[in-house]
Design a protein that fits this description.
The chain is an alpha/beta fold. It has six helices and 17 strands.
């Protein structure tokens, strides 16, 4: 897409009441590395990723999604996006400026159409990362983030019109209509998706593993530790990626995945996948059926952070 200014997903920032418990889960079980920490704030990196951090945890009285951060190629692109959003009437949280978070850079924040905070940045210092070794079952990088919206068509239109995302595929139900829209900002099948839900909230965050063996070993580690897995292990049809969905200590859904499809954007045409087809849900047939309990868990709690910018 010639006018696309967003390049990739950088990080997802979450606030929780029990900071110590959440920090322990992501560092001791999930496999992320703390790289900087202040009072009630920790930056967590994926060892295989050049991003300074892929998750930021913050202590707060409420559980909330603080923000989703995306990258841009240059200051000019950041300034262009901020100007275009402002002209379109999108509410900016901050004007383009030097960032005060880990790795620095230059960026700005705004509220999307559901009120969640989004950050666009460039010139963030790369972190020294490494190759993930054979059988090393820790995340290589952040893969994608999925949000819940009471109006998926509106959210899809916002990300297409204002941020240059393209729709890759959709999940549909013959009686309910569109359930999930997969969207991309580069050839990866999706770095963002929007799911139909009663309220705005975080649906899930996904982390890419090195390969199938590492994906299964990571899944097994979480299961042995008694972490609740709500769906998996299996392989979706849309995106062709593996999935194991777990619940973190505060009820957020987190996913291990691998082998997410890379698209030829010039020739790709979106498909509509009927979720009543079991092959759509899981090509392997190894995962538990997607039922009401799985769906309810993915709805998460209504986010009190809607239209409330995080303090950091």
């Amino acid at each position: 897409m010639s006018d696309r200014l967003i390049t990739h997903l950088r990080h997802v920032d979450i606030a929780v009441p029990d900071y110590a418990k959440q920090r322990e889960f992501y560092t001791q079980l999930w496999g992320l590395t703390p790289v900087a920490e202040d009072s009630g704030l920790v930056y967590l990196a994926a060892e295989g990723s050049p991003e300074q951090y892929v998750v930021r945890l913050r202590k707060d009285a409420d559980k909330r999604l603080d923000l989703i951060a995306y990258g841009a190629a240059s200051r000019e692109d950041v300034d262009t996006m901020a100007a275009q959003l402002g002209t379109a009437g999108v509410q900016l949280v901050s004007e383009p400026d030097v960032l005060q978070t880990l790795g620095g850079g230059y960026g700005f924040r705004f509220f999307d159409c559901d009120g969640r905070t989004v950050e666009i940045s460039t010139e963030v210092e790369n972190r020294q990362h490494r190759r993930i070794e054979d059988r090393e079952a820790i995340p290589v990088r952040l893969s994608h983030v999925v949000v819940n919206s009471p109006d998926t068509a509106r959210t899809q239109a916002f990300y297409e019109q204002h941020l240059g995302f393209a729709t890759s595929d959709k999940l549909t139900h013959p009686y309910v209509g569109d359930l999930m829209t997969f969207m991309r900002c580069n050839p990866q099948h999706h770095s963002f998706a929007v799911a139909k839900a009663p309220h705005a909230s975080l649906h899930h965050v996904s982390f890419e593993m090195r390969g199938l063996d590492e994906y299964m070993r990571g899944t097994g580690r979480l299961l042995r530790a008694g972490t609740k897995m709500i769906w998996g292990p299996g392989r979706h049809l849309a995106g062709d990626n593996t999935f194991s969905y777990f619940i973190d200590p505060h009820g957020n859904t987190m996913e291990y995945t691998t082998e997410l499809e890379q698209l030829d954007e010039d020739s790709w045409h979106p498909s509509l996948y009927d979720v009543t087809d079991l092959e759509v849900q899981d090509q392997w047939g190894t995962a538990n059926p997607f039922d009401e309990l799985v769906g309810t868990a993915s709805f998460n709690d209504p986010d009190p952070g809607v239209y409330v910018a995080p303090p950091v």
